[in-house]
């Protein structure tokens, strides 16, 4: 609990440099090769500072994913708030996914690294599960608000729908990044059709 409190207290330019350095290191070396020495040197801070705030590189990795997830969700807030039809909602979700795959593939690298770390570390698994639950709940609340506006008619509960939509998105991203030369237009079309079914009862 104390370590988590310290994490929340670290903010500003220094925190951003640390997060960006960890993200770049994982992309270049993977989590196994991303030491506090690498991250501290690239962020221009002391190793002691990283140990004090995060304790382990796995905790730092969770913090990077938390911040990236907040950015991911924030990008959905305003365009989804403006959405007036199911097609508008689908356009926002699909365009956001494609933008992440094309311009920020490191986001998915981090998610998969955290998943792998969590399989070996129960504490990381708990922290990442809590993070992903908060993210899904936030998006579910947006969909519930859209349903109250009459834009959507959810076929299942909002939490279940969001969990499935995230699973589709993460799965497509994994395949697209594994095989970048393959055309995924039809896969996106199929995923969009599945999403439309879930959003319209």
Overview of the structural elements:
By secondary structure, the protein is an all-alpha fold. The protein folds into two domains: 1-55, Orthogonal Bundle (Arc Repressor Mutant, subunit A); 64-199, Orthogonal Bundle (Tetracycline Repressor, domain 2). The chain has ten helices and no strands. The chain has helices at 2-9, 13-33, 36-43, 47-54, 57-82, 86-103, 106-120, 122-148, 158-178, 185-199. α3 (36-43) packs across α4, α5 runs parallel beside α8 and α6 runs antiparallel to α10 (185-199). It is elongated and about 55 Å long. The termini are far apart. Mean pLDDT is 87; it is low at 1-8.
The sequence of SSEs as H and E is HHHHHHHHHH
Which parts are unreliable, with pLDDT below 50 for 5 consecutive residues or more?
Answer: 1-8
Q: Which fold name fills CATH's third level, the topology of the largest domain?
A: Tetracycline Repressor, domain 2
Shape estimate: elongated
Count the beta strands. 0
| CATH C-level name of the largest domain | Mainly Alpha
* N- to C-terminal distance: 43 Å
Structural class: mainly alpha
Mean pLDDT: 87
> Any idea what the radius of gyration is?
18 Å
Work out the strand percent: under 5%
Our count of helices gives 10
Features:
201 residues; mainly alpha; Arc Repressor Mutant, subunit A; Tetracycline Repressor, domain 2; 2 domains; 83% helix; elongated; disordered N terminus
């Amino acid at each position: 609990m104390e370590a988590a409190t310290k994490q929340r207290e670290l903010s500003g330019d220094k925190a951003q440099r640390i997060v960006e350095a960890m993200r770049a290191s994982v992309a270049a070396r993977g989590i196994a090769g991303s030491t506090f020495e690498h991250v501290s040197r690239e962020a221009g801070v002391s190793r002691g500072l990283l140990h004090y705030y995060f304790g382990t590189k796995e905790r730092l990795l969770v913090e990077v994913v938390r911040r990236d997830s907040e950015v991911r969700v924030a990008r959905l807030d305003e365009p989804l708030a403006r959405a007036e039809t199911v097609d508008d909602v689908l356009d926002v979700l699909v365009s956001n996914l494609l933008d992440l795959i094309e311009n920020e593939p490191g986001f998915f690298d981090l998610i998969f690294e955290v998943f792998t770390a969590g399989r070996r570390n129960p504490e990381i698994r708990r922290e990442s599960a809590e993070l992903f639950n908060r993210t899904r709940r936030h998006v579910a609340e947006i969909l519930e608000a859209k349903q109250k506006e009459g834009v959507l008619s959810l076929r299942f509960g909002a939490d279940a729908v969001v969990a499935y939509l995230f699973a589709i998105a993460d799965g497509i991203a994994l395949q697209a990044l594994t095989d970048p030369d393959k055309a995924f237009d039809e896969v996106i079309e199929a995923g969009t059709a599945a999403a439309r079914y879930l959003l319209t009862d």
